[in-house]
C-alpha cells in the first residue's frame, strides 16, 4: 500500500526571543500514513499534534526534516489541494453568509459547481436542511463543523485532515460526525485526525500515533493497542465478603469490587459468589482500551526519562 503521507525527521523549534532557548514542538518525528488509513494523532496538550498537521498542510515550515503529502511538500496554491480537505478545530467563516451560501461559496473556491439536488442531499445527510437559510454567525460550533464536513461530502477528498473534530460537540452531533467519517473512510478517503477524545478515536481509527513533548512514542495499528486478554476476566461484584487471593482488585468502594480473575479460576469465583449470595454485575473478557494503552505508554516514557 502506497504512503499518502511521509514524515521524515520532522523538527519544529519556535523562537522564544533573545537569550532564550527555542521551544521544540516536534523532535525528529518520522512516520508514514498509508492510503485508506484512518490515522489518529493522540497525546497530551502541547505534544505537537496540531503542529504536525500544520506542517503537513504547508501552513508551517519545519525547522528541519520534511512532511510530504502524495510525494510532495505542500505549498499554498498547490494543485494537490483539490484532493485534500481540512476541517480545523475552530472554523471561521464569512459569517454574513447563510449555511447554503457558505457551502456553495467554499465549493466554488475549488472550482466545483453544485446542482441543487446534490446540495440538498448533502444538507439532508448532515441534518442541515432545516437551517440552510440561517446565517453562519448564528450557528453553533457543531453546525459550523457540519458545514465543513458538508464541503467534504460534495466531492469526497483523497485526504481528510481534522484538528480536534469532536471537541465541544454534543453527543448527537458526535455520533453523526463519526458515522460520516467512517463512511468516507470506507469509500477510500485517507483520514488524519488529532483528538483528545480517545473513545471516539477507538471507533474511527485504524492506526494510532502517540506523541508526548514533541516526540513520537509509538505508532501502531489500533488492534494492537486495544488487544483482548483471553486468559483474564474483568468482574464487578457486590457483597462478596473476604476477597479470594486470585482476585486482583482495581477498585473497592462501599462493598462493590471491580477487578480481574484468571480464566482458569473463573468457575471457582462464580461458585464463591453464588455461595455467599453476592451480586455479580458484570463478567467479561478483559480488553485493553486505547486509553489504557495510551496511559501505559506515557508512563513508560516518563520512567525512562527519570
| Count of individual helical segments | 9
Distance between the termini: 39 Å
CATH superfamily of the largest domain: P-loop containing nucleotide triphosphate hydrolases
Q: How many strands, which pairing sense, and closed or not: the largest β-sheet?
A: 6 strands, mixed
Task: Indicate the radius of gyration in whole angstroms.
Answer: 24 Å
The H-and-E topology, N to C, reads as EEEHEEHHHEHEHEEHEEEHEH
- Chain-averaged pLDDT: 89
**What topology, given as strand order, has the largest sheet?**
5-6-7-3-8-9
pLDDT < 50 stretches = none
Say what the CATH topology of the largest domain is: Rossmann fold
Which CATH first-tier class of the largest domain would you pick?
Answer: Alpha Beta
Number of strands: 13
The share of residues in extended strands comes to 25-35%
Structural class of the helix and strand makeup?
Answer: alpha/beta
Q: What is the 3D shape?
A: globular
Query: What level of helicity do the residues show?
Result: 25-40%
Write the layout of secondary structure elements.
Elements (H helix, E strand, L loop, with lengths): L2 E12 L8 E12 L3 E5 L6 H8 L7 E6 L14 E4 L11 H11 L6 H10 L15 H14 L4 E5 L7 H16 L3 E5 L3 H7 L2 E6 L2 E7 H4 L2 E11 L9 E6 L2 E7 L3 H11 L2 E9 L2 H15 L2
Parallel strand pairs: 3-7, 3-8, 5-6, 6-7
Antiparallel strand pairs: 1-2, 1-4, 8-9, 10-12, 10-13, 11-12
Amino acid at each position: 500500500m502506497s504512503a499518502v503521507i511521509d514524515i521524515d525527521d520532522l523538527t519544529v523549534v519556535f523562537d522564544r526571543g533573545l537569550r532564550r532557548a527555542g521551544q521544540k514542538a516536534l523532535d525528529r518525528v518520522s512516520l508514514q500514513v498509508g492510503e485508506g488509513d484512518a490515522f489518529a494523532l493522540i497525546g497530551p496538550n502541547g505534544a505537537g499534534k496540531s503542529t504536525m498537521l500544520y506542517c503537513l498542510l504547508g501552513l508551517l515550515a519545519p525547522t528541519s526534516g520534511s512532511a510530504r503529502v502524495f510525494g510532495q511538500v505542500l505549498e499554498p496554491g498547490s494543485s494537490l489541494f483539490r484532493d485534500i480537505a481540512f476541517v480545523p478545530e475552530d472554523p471561521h467563516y464569512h459569517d454574513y453568509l447563510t449555511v447554503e451560501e457558505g457551502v456553495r461559496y467554499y465549493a466554488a473556491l475549488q472550482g466545483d459547481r453544485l446542482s441543487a439536488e446534490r446540495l440538498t442531499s448533502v444538507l439532508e445527510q448532515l441534518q442541515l436542511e432545516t437551517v440552510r437559510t440561517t446565517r453562519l454567525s448564528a450557528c453553533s460550533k457543531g453546525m459550523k463543523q457540519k458545514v465543513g464536513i458538508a464541503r467534504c461530502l460534495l466531492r469526497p477528498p483523497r485526504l481528510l485532515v481534522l484538528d480536534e473534530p469532536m471537541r465541544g460537540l454534543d453527543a448527537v452531533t458526535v455520533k453523526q460526525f463519526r458515522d460520516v467519517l467512517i463512511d468516507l473512510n470506507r469509500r477510500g478517503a485517507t483520514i488524519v485526525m488529532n483528538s483528545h477524545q480517545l473513545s471516539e478515536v477507538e471507533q474511527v481509527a485504524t492506526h494510532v500515533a502517540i506523541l508526548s513533548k514533541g516526540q513520537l512514542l509509538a505508532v501502531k495499528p489500533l488492534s494492537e493497542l486495544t488487544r483482548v486478554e483471553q486468559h483474564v476476566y474483568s468482574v464487578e461484584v457486590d457483597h462478596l465478603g473476604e476477597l479470594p487471593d486470585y482476585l486482583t482488585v482495581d477498585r473497592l468502594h462501599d462493598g462493590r469490587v471491580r477487578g480481574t480473575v484468571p480464566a482458569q479460576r473463573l468457575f471457582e469465583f462464580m461458585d464463591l459468589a453464588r455461595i455467599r449470595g453476592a451480586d455479580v454485575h458484570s463478567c467479561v473478557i478483559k480488553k485493553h482500551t486505547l486509553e489504557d494503552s495510551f496511559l501505559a505508554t506515557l508512563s513508560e516514557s516518563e520512567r525512562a526519562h527519570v
